[in-house]
């Protein structure tokens, strides 16, 4: 157990890149794409994140579905594909039911059995998150799905993390927050969450304050970090 997690009783998970593989949409349709499919997927994700940050700073909110479509349009212009109109529609449809990482269901089941309160805290729309959760059969394992839609801005604004506390009925120090996004970990840690970084691709740490209390490569290492609940 990590001693800094001793007071936690709630696990809040980022969705995209943490529970759900953001590159699984392109992987599903790879046979319809040229050899730049991976580059397109990486750029799509990069622009998606950039647009959430920039729109929050500019106070020009559109929902995550629109941000994702705009980012895909940018990536398809950078890496043009045959039959781009139909491919675009297919990729966005695939994004609604991204694949969960293989260890997710078993990890959530273990935590649920041990009495942890579990939720998602995401930039995504409730519509897309409900579809992804249902597609991976995770609904019975979650107490809540919290989205930024009522706030109309994105993480890492502190108000998003406060919304997570409010919805889960917990103080910030009682929340173990899990994300594969190092910038999200920094934001959550600054707010007061006990943040664990799911560093799936062995990236170096960001040069930001508010770092993780622990770092693991997959979620199945999480149960051993957490305290036993009374």
Write the layout of secondary structure elements.
Layout (H helix, E strand, L loop, with lengths): L9 E4 L10 H5 L8 H22 L5 H15 L5 H12 L8 H10 L3 E6 L3 H10 L8 E4 L10 H11 L6 E5 L2 H10 L2 E5 L15 E3 L14
Parallel strand pairs: 1-2, 1-4, 2-3, 4-5, 5-6
Description:
The chain has helices spanning 24-28, 37-58, 64-78, 84-95, 104-113, 126-135, 158-168, 182-191, and strands spanning 10-13, 117-122, 144-147, 175-179, 194-198, 214-216. With 230 residues, it is α/β, with parallel strands linked by helices. Helix 2 (37-58) crosses helix 3. The model has no long low-confidence stretch (mean pLDDT 97).
CA-based gyration radius: 17 Å
Work out the helix count: 8
**Kindly, what is the distance between the CA atoms of the first and last residues, rounded to a whole number of angstroms?**
15 Å
CATH architectural type of the largest domain = 3-Layer(aba) Sandwich
What is the CATH topology of the largest domain? Rossmann fold
E-strand count: 6
| Residue windows where pLDDT falls under 50 for at least 5 positions | none
Q: Kindly report the average pLDDT value.
A: 97
CATH first level of the largest domain: Alpha Beta
Describe the main β-sheet briefly.
6 strands, parallel
């Amino acid at each position: 157990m990590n001693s800094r997690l001793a007071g936690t009783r709630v696990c809040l998970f980022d969705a995209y890149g943490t529970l759900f593989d953001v590159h699984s949409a392109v992987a599903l349709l790879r046979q319809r794409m040229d050899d730049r499919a991976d580059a397109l997927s990486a750029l799509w994700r990069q622009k998606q994140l950039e647009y959430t940050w920039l729109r929050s700073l500019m106070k020009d909110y559109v929902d995550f579905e629109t941000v994702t479509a705009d980012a895909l349009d940018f990536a398809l212009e950078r890496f043009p594909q045959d039959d781009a109109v139909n491919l675009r529609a297919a990729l966005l449809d695939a994004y609604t039911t991204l694949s969960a990482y293989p260890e997710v269901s078993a990890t959530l089941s273990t935590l649920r059995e041990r009495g942890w309160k579990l939720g998602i805290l995401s930039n995504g729309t409730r519509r897309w998150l409900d579809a992804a959760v249902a597609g991976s059969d995770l609904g019975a394992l979650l107490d809540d799905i919290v989205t930024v839609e009522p706030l109309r801005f994105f993480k890492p604004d502190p108000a998003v993390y406060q919304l997570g506390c409010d919805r889960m009925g917990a103080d910030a120090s009682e929340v173990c927050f899990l994300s594969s996004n190092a910038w999200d970990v920094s934001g959550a840690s600054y707010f007061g969450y006990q943040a664990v970084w799911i560093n799936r691709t062995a990236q170096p740490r960001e040069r930001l304050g508010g770092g993780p209390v622990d770092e693991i490569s997959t979620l199945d290492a999480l149960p051993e970090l957490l305290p036993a609940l009374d």
